[in-house]
Amino acid sequence: MLGEPTPDRHEVGAARRRKEDARLVTGRTQWTDNIQLPGMLHVAFLRSPMAHARITGVDTSAARSMPGVIAAFSGRDFAGEQGTLPCAWPVTEDIVIPDHPPMAVDEVRYAGEAVACVVATDRYKASDALEAIEIDYEPLPPVLDMTEALKDGGPKVHEAGNRAYTWKYAEGDIDAAFRDAPVVIERTFVQQRLIPTAMEPRAVVAQTDGDHFTLHSATQIPHILRIMLAQVTGIPEHKLRVVAPDVGGGFGSKLQVTAEEVLLLLLTRRLGKPVKWTESRSEGNLTVHHGRDQLQRVSLAADADGRLRGMRVDLLADMGAYLMLVTPGIPILGAFMYNGIYKMDAYDFTCTGVFTTKMPTDAYRGAGRPEATFAVERLMDELAAELSLDPIEVRRRNWITHEEFPYTTIAGLTYDSGNYEAATDRALALFGYDKLRAEQVDRRDRGDPVQLGIGVSTFTEMCGLAPSRVLGSLSYGAGGWEHASVRMLPTGRVEVVTGASPHGQGHETAWSQIVADALGVPFEDVSVLHGDTAISHKGMDTYGSRSLAVGGVAVVQACEKVKEKARHIAAHLLEASADDVEFDGGRFKVRGTDAGKTIQEIALAAFAAHDLPDGVEPSLDSDATFDPENFSFPHGTHLCAIEVDTETGATKIRSYVAVDDVGKVVNPLIVEGQVHGGLAQGIAQALFEEAVYDAEGNLLTTTMADYLVPSAADLPDFVTERTETPATSNPLGVKGVGEAGTIASTPAVVNAIVDALRPYGVNDVPMPCTPERVWRALQGGTS
Oxidoreductase as a keyword (predicted)? Predict the structure, then answer.
């Protein structure tokens, strides 16, 4: 039986429980590590224990003789066919892009780099056999500090040197902006290195059938991966299928072409057997690309009343040992957001990418925009303190007002819509701002050892990573469009094929809601297919908060084409002119009459093809590809109250309010989940997480005991609400939401901590703001 349409109910905007959750949360689904194939072998990788060394000898013979071992290989065994891992974003013409072999051949450049592998009948035998492989290393000096790496005469990561590129952007007269400025704020901030920690570790299964290959991978980018793997391995693209089954989280860490994906394809080609690799959590900490790791030297010039004049940014970005898929472009994304929501006369940005002997960095939730937002929001609080102004007031004096949209910023982006006043006013009311400020004064007056700090973050971000022409102007190696197909089945149900590949975002539910409204069919009668290049043959995948604003709009456009095809068939069956046929709530009607047919009836008539207009094909199925002309710009105001124990350095978030504007909302429950998850990751950077290397370049934070990821017990209850200014860059009016919480929350938390400590002479605490670091700041103060 077909589900009953509900013409009076709009699905878009409804708080639908996610239809995919039943299988995801109970584990009744297909993760990559669940895949079992006849004759499948297991792969384990031996990884370098040294950050920098020449490989002078490899002996795998003992490993090959161990029980259950089928084969063992060194990098030299694959030197002629493994190629180099791709970098798709050469941000400058003179950028240095070193060869990046999936398995090291002559030299290792970070601890954890693969140097050999074992193939065995189970994963434990493969892992045990790694201990029998003998590798001889000639140690080389590690390169760990970016500033030292750029000095002449020091050790080099690559023969070409340690500078990957220098990228500049400037607008306005920056010298005039700073010349004789009544107020100049200068700060240096460290964006510590982070390790993405998805719920599902990476896993890869590769198999061959003659000259055809299938790769299953826990990846965010099956379509991009297919193209890149074809180029690296030489396997023709049309003979390579990539499948991303249900994927348990990505956050950018699975936006990658990894060494393991390339090597497993080469192994299955060489051995003729299916092969599987699943990383351990410690292995993942070593070899999942890392995030952030930037040194920000920033300065702000302002008038005596707090009006901004100009901003300088001098950025060092740690690339790690190699440039991975989009490594060099990540800090460049932030270049357009250091101005935030504020007006100013001049802006000067310089970014230098630096090679070090560490795991390469790449996209991590927010990808360049959290770093930029942190810098500008910290500076706005510093400016407020310098002028003895309330942090909210100094922002009001500088932000773009709602009457000024669309507004082209000093960084060259055109913000299409927004209302910072509305979001801030609502956040202040929910937070009880004035009451908390009064309590803060009282605690200071009483000398309370537990001080109260209030942090502000009024932010925007560029997301819906798309416009192909813009990406092309930034030398990005691909476009930003997205593809969708909508198929009307003979029984009246609908299949949607999307190029946006989910890893926890709820695409199946949101797309079903969009289609239910667009076609007037029941929500339950829509299914969504994704993640398999043999089913979804076109797509640009999921990252940069682009799925809904780009992929969702492609679905809408495909639905419009379905309705247009159906309208002509309906007109024929109703013996009317197509111009007189209207569509409403799933039904085609002749204007001014009750005569009509449902879209399901039209689908069946098209399938039967007994009575179609001349020249009309018997199908309603339609495709669409959407390439927006602009990014989308969600915004919001986040407020954080933190209690800081000045005797121990302990901090406790007392309350947190987030009012976000993500345009039109398709599903409030999904939005809430995205905001909550984003807040957890942003707060984690502020208070908990840091990848630490020792002086020899060894990663010390390889386990969950060493790398601190907060649990629910470590986080407060969040108060969240929304304002709504629809985007004008897409017909749905939607903006991205997946990264907003991460981008906004880190500066809100750190601003709150610094606000609590200002009476003690402290104007910064390095992240993560652990109790020890807060205590040390209190002992010495900063100025």
Answer: yes
Helix (H, G, I), strand (E, B) or coil at 131: helix
Diameter of the chain by CA atoms? 87
Nearest CA-CA partner of 374 in 455, 255, 301, 290: 455
Dist. CA 345–CA 348, nearest whole Å: 11
Asked if 445 and 739 touch (Cβ cutoff 8 Å), the reply is: no
What band does 27 get if pLDDT is binned at 50, 70 and 90?
A: confident
**Distance between alpha carbon 754 and the CA centroid of its chain, in Å?**
28
Q: Binning pLDDT at 50, 70 and 90, where does residue 227 land?
A: very high
| CB-based contact 558:622 (threshold 8 Å) | yes
CB 415 within 8 Å of CB 601: no
**Residue 768, preceding bond cis, omega within 30 degrees?**
yes
For residue 612, the one-letter residue type is L
Burial class (CB in 10 A: 0-12, 13-18, 19+), 280: middle
Strand partners, 212: 209
Q: What is the pLDDT of residue 7?
A: 52
pLDDT at 238 over 90: yes
- How far is residue 237's CA from residue 229's CA, in Å, rounded to a whole number? 8
pLDDT of amino acid 783:
40
The span from the CA of 277 to the CA of 33, in Å, is: 8
Q: Reply yes or no on whether the pLDDT at 409 is more than 50.
A: yes
Query: Nearest Cα to 276, choosing from 85, 67, 32?
Result: 32
CA–CA separation, 722 vs 73, rounded Å?
55
Exposure of 453 in the CB half-sphere (CA atoms within 13 A): 31
Tell me the pTM. 0.96
pLDDT digits (tens, 9 = 90+) for 189-200: 999 999 999 999
Task: Tell me how far apart the alpha carbons of residues 319 and 362 are, in angstroms, rounded to a whole number.
Answer: 8
User: Over the stretch 695-747, which tens digit does the pLDDT of each residue have?
Assistant: 999 999 999 999 999 999 999 999 999 999 999 999 999 999 999 999 999 99
Q: What is the mean pLDDT of residues 626-640?
A: 97
Q: HSE on the CB side for 572, CA within 13 Å? A: 16
Backbone angles phi, psi at 88, to 5 degrees: -100, 10
DSSP letters spanning 346-365: EEEEEEEEEE-SSPPB---T
- Other CB atoms within 10 A of residue 145 CB: 15
Q: How far apart are CA 646 and CA 449, in angstroms?
A: 5
Under DSSP, the state recorded for 135 is E
* φ and ψ at residue 754, rounded to 5 degrees: -65, -40
Structure tokens at 682: 């942003």
| Mean pLDDT, rounded, for 323-339 | 97
The beta strand positions in 516-634, using DSSP E, are: 526-529, 581-584, 587-590, 596-598, 622-626
- Answer whether 250's CB lies under 8 Å from 505's CB: no
Q: How far is CA 646 from the centre of its chain?
A: 36
Rounded CA separation 257/30 (Å): 21
- The pLDDT value recorded for residue 465 is 83
Question: Using CA of residue 337, residue 338, residue 340, residue 343, what is the dihedral sign?
Answer: negative
Cα–Cα distance, 350 to 334 (Å, whole number): 11
- Cα–Cα distance list, 323 to 111, 216, 328, 398 (Å): 16, 24, 7, 37
Q: What is the pLDDT of residue 781?
A: 63
